[in-house]
Amino acid sequence: MSNALAPQQATGSLRPAGQFDLSPQTFEQAMSFSKMLADSDLVPKDFKGKPGNCMIAMQWGSELGLKPLQALSNIAVVNGRAALWGDAVIALVRGSPVCEYVKETDDGHTATCRAKRKGEAEHVVTFSMDDAKQAGLAGKQGPWSQYPKRMRQMRARAFALRDVFPDVLRGMPIAEEVQDIPTERHMGQATDVTPEPPAEPAAYPQADFDKNMPAWAKAIAAGKKSMDAVISTVEAKAPLTEEQKAALADEVKKLEPQDVVSKTTTGAPPVDAATLEKRLREAPDLDQLYEAAGLMDAITDTEIRADLDQVFNERLHELGG
Fold it and tell me: Domain residues for 58?
């Protein structure tokens, strides 16, 4: 595989025909030429002592149709990006056979660029001081304060020529635009914003536990609620400690088993859902609430049973259980 750079000889090239030049033909020649240029005092500061920059600029020039020294004179590094200066932009475009004309005017407030590509309609772009103000450029320290007319012209030109002749410019950005893009600022040391793990919820208050545990134990011993069901209901409010769970289990063991109404008991009295709901809502204390809850086993309709469970939990919360 050949290591020749094979620069593209664009029809619109700025290269004068028939003249001697030092354009490198191989990668080794390009490296050697880049080092020589970087050591020279005749290259812009962006290329002084930087052979890598020189080589990249020469390659860009090769793709655009510029000789090496033309490339280094007309390609600049602006905000970390390679960009073409305004005069080289219009020179490349006007030297292209697809360009019919480029006309520029300025009335003291608005710059106008009219560009025509062969076979297409004229394209008109304007850039006014109002546009400059909206972009935060008017009065900006530097060229926008010293040469506003020239800067308006460069902006209108850049927009028009990039719109009409992107193939001629090979997508190369325009220096006058790039230099007005704000540079990145160092925002300081990054702060670790990893969220802290949520704190463990506080345990069920011991005073409330001592107050409510007898009623819970009676309900469990009477078969109105299982141990797991009571713990699950209580921990919806706050978690029980292992010591509290052990104390509840001990309290249940002390109580004598009691007969409860079961839906499986032959001859068990029927339970009216509406009446049971009323008892749950009006239970004055936890003892009577759990007593009423024991009748829920006789309700076979799952939807009604779910509604009664919700009423029970709401009332349990109201009574501090």
Answer: 1-14+22-78
